[in-house]
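Exercise 7b. Backbone tokens:
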């Protein structure tokens, strides 16, 4: 059986060029570029809480890094270095090989270097810490949204949550619908390039990991403003649209979590720039509402009537202790 250090050498050690010192010492050494700040985020994925027992290790490796890249994207930063801590119930090379491949392939796609971490025996748990760089004072934040700003989202929302609902037998999707929706659940695409291109355009930003209602709510709280969002404008798949009369589908769209799209605000004068950015990135960017004076988020139907949502439930979104 492989030892801890053999696991690290075989599956999680690679040549680094951006770090002063990577895997193999007591600590990594990095050197930030002049006039930059470091954006640092940590996420943990626990078997049975964030993914099903027996989940595909290739997809799990991808997602473990993708959720951290999404946090860096929301700040507008460039991802640079990552740490990986793994608790494993056993040393299983048939699991380790695809997991490390999924993780490292996505890391290479975003020029991220794995420079350290830890392994131990225990219930399956994946913990990732990521470090990004951004020019001093330029990071996107949850503060900064002001009245009259537009509210935008990238991509489509709700597919991951409705795919999960299908797996939990709370809703039924056709096989092709499930295949399409499950990509969002198992292999999300972090919007790193979008975040970097929003510098100078967006007034605030957040990644949608706990659901639109909750995450936009965080922006409103930090910016001390309110917002009105039009339900009809929130982008969603055909599969979700066909089931929108179901409370489960509506909850998936507004509060499901696991979208890993970006929600951002920008002045109306920036609409042409946002449209140009959508064309440049070949990524749908949809204006779904506006920032207003006051507090809280209101979702309205196509007649402008506020939806009677269970506010506590929707505002909470996905909760790790729920």
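Sequence design result:
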């Amino acid at each position: 059986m492989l030892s801890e250090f053999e696991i690290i050498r075989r599956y999680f050690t690679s040549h680094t060029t951006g770090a002063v010192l990577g895997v193999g010492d007591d600590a990594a050494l990095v050197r930030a570029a002049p006039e930059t700040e470091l954006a640092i985020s940590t996420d943990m994925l626990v078997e049975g809480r964030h993914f099903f027992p027996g989940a595909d290790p290739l997809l799990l490796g991808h997602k473990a890094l993708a959720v951290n890249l999404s946090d860096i994207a929301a700040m507008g930063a460039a991802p640079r270095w990552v740490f990986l801590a793994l608790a494993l119930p056993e040393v299983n090379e048939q699991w380790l090989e695809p997991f490390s491949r999924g993780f490292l392939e996505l890391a290479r796609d975003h020029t991220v270097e794995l420079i350290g971490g830890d392994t131990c025996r225990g219930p399956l748990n994946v913990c990732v810490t990521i470090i990004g760089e951004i020019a001093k004072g330029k990071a996107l934040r949850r503060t900064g949204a002001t009245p009259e700003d537009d509210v935008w989202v990238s991509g489509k929302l709700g597919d991951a949550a409705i795919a999960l609902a299908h797996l939990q037998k709370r809703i039924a999707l056709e096989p092709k619908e499930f295949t399409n929706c499950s990509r969002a659940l198992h292999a999300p695409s972090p919007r790193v390039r979008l975040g970097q291109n929003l510098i100078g355009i967006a007034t605030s930003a957040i990644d949608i990991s706990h659901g639109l209602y909750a995450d936009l709510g965080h922006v409103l709280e930090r910016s001390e403003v309110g917002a009105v969002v039009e339900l009809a404008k929130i982008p969603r798949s055909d599969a979700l649209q066909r089931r929108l009369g179901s409370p489960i589908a509506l909850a998936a769209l507004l509060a499901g979590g696991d979208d890993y799209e970006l929600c951002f605000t920008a002045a109306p004068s920036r609409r042409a720039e946002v449209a140009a950015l959508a064309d440049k990135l070949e990524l749908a960017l949809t204006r779904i509402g506006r920032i207003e004076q006051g507090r809280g988020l209101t979702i309205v139907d196509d007649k402008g009537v506020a939806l009677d949502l269970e506010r506590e439930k929707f505002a909470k979104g996905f909760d790790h202790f729920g």
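Instructor comment: The mean pLDDT is 91. Residues 4-135 form a domain with the 60s Ribosomal Protein L30; Chain: A; fold (CATH 3.30.1330.10).
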